[in-house]
Design a protein that fits this description.
Order of helices and strands: HEEHEEEEEHEEE
CATH topology: Cyclophilin
Strand order of the largest sheet: 1-2-7-5-6-4-3-10
Shape: globular
Largest sheet: 8 strands, antiparallel, barrel
Helix content: 10-25%
Radius of gyration: 17 Å
CATH architecture: Beta Barrel
CATH class: Mainly Beta
Length: 187
């Protein structure tokens, strides 16, 4: 009985702790994805992401890179593959926060410069722990800052769309997967 009570209290305390975290709704032309954010683990990254959400930066952009069995990535290009320039400076890498690039987590995309993340993000379709802090010679990983709480079926559906290579861009969905809007549902 004591073990059951401890387990119940652990699950209950986790549920209470997460109720304070912000939640965003990513509305796409393929369905809705709800994402809980972790400002206690990645404060600068979450602040940056929510700033862009509040400004409507993501509205009308696409998931421009879909790699089956890996990730779906968006937040940087419109449906004509025109790059949308970020309006704020890059964010300091916070990948050393104890979170892992597991299936359903959201993380910041970046260049080879670990501190170059701006607007682009990806959702992991599978466990990609090799993207975590300390798993490569440079040590810096890709900052996980939240997880999908509802709509993983939509993420999986996006992860299976047909893709093509267009110029230097690879794994571009044949039919655009549009981020119609990202809105804050709990702040």
């Amino acid at each position: 009985m004591k073990k059951i009570l401890i387990l119940f209290l652990s699950v209950f305390s986790f549920a209470i702790a997460t109720e304070k975290n912000p939640v965003v709704l990513i509305k796409t032309n393929m369905g809705n994805i709800y994402v809980e954010l972790y400002p206690d683990k990645a404060p600068k990254t979450v602040k940056n992401f929510l700033t862009y959400v509040k400004e409507g930066f993501y509205d009308g952009l696409i998931f421009h890179r879909v790699v089956k069995g890996f990730v779906i990535q968006g937040g940087g290009f419109d449906r004509n593959l025109k790059y949308k320039k970020p309006t704020h400076p890059p964010v300091e890498n916070e990948s050393n926060n104890g979170l892992s690039n597991l299936r359903g987590t959201i993380a910041m995309a970046r260049t080879s410069d670990p501190h170059s993340a701006t607007t682009q993000f990806f959702i992991n379709l599978v466990d990609n722990t090799y993207l975590d802090y300390g798993k490569n010679p440079q040590k810096w990983g890709y900052t996980v800052f939240g997880r999908v709480t509802k709509g993983m079926d939509v993420v999986d559906e996006i992860g299976n769309v047909p893709v093509v290579n267009i110029g230097w861009m690879v794994n571009v969905p044949v039919k655009p997967v549009i981020i119609e809007k990202i809105e804050i549902v709990r702040n």
